Amino acid sequence: PGPRSYTTLRDEAVKLFNSLQQLESERDPVPLMQGVLQTCLDLPPLVDEIYCQLVKQTTEPPAPGGQGDLHYWQLLTCMSCTFLPSPPVLRFLRFHLDKTESRFPASEMAKYACFIREALGKTKGRECVPSLEEILMLMQRQEMICTVHCPGAPACSVAISSHTTAQEVAQELVSRLGLSQSPNLFALYEQSRRREQPVGSATLLADVLTRFE
């Protein structure tokens, strides 16, 4: 049940497999990646399925390090910052990452494998799938720039990752603005045309940015 219409898990798994095949030759893979991530968010039982399919696609590829191969690694990177697989699949995935790094040292695949391993140690689950901007940054293994508007001060730009919380950003801004000794409490607020509300301290800023998108 939800705003999107789905069929059986088996049929959706087949559709996702077809999407992965299309991903290999896609010129602009970002919307397709976001669609796969959204399906996994809506249908959690398919998370392990996609992890296994991506491990398969990145094992013995026809052209290691080619565009198609890297598209799979980039989607695997986005998955690792959004969902945790079940323990058996996680062990299998870590083995795959280790094998890739040892077989292709200093390659792009090895760099993605290292990034994914670190991300898996921080990921706790997301409320929203990554925004298009976040996917673009993850494809390059870079952080996003988040702009925070402060009363009485110019806007501040803060580099955030997929795992940065509102509390961490608030603490950084308090330090930058020289307010560390202030007895006041500080928080981030999310403002739109209809409402303004505080952002929970444990909320991931990446989820807030996706809601804005």
UniProtKB/TrEMBL annotation:
Residues 144-213 form the FERM domain. It holds the Pfam family RA_2. GO terms for biological process: signal transduction. GO terms for cellular component: cytoskeleton. Residues 1-139 form the MyTH4 domain. Residues 142-213 form the Ras-associating domain. InterPro entries: Actin_motor_Myosin, FERM_domain, MyTH4_dom, MyTH4_dom_sf, RA_dom, Ubiquitin-like_domsf. This is PKHH3 protein. The lineage of its organism: Eukaryota, Metazoa, Chordata, Craniata, Vertebrata.
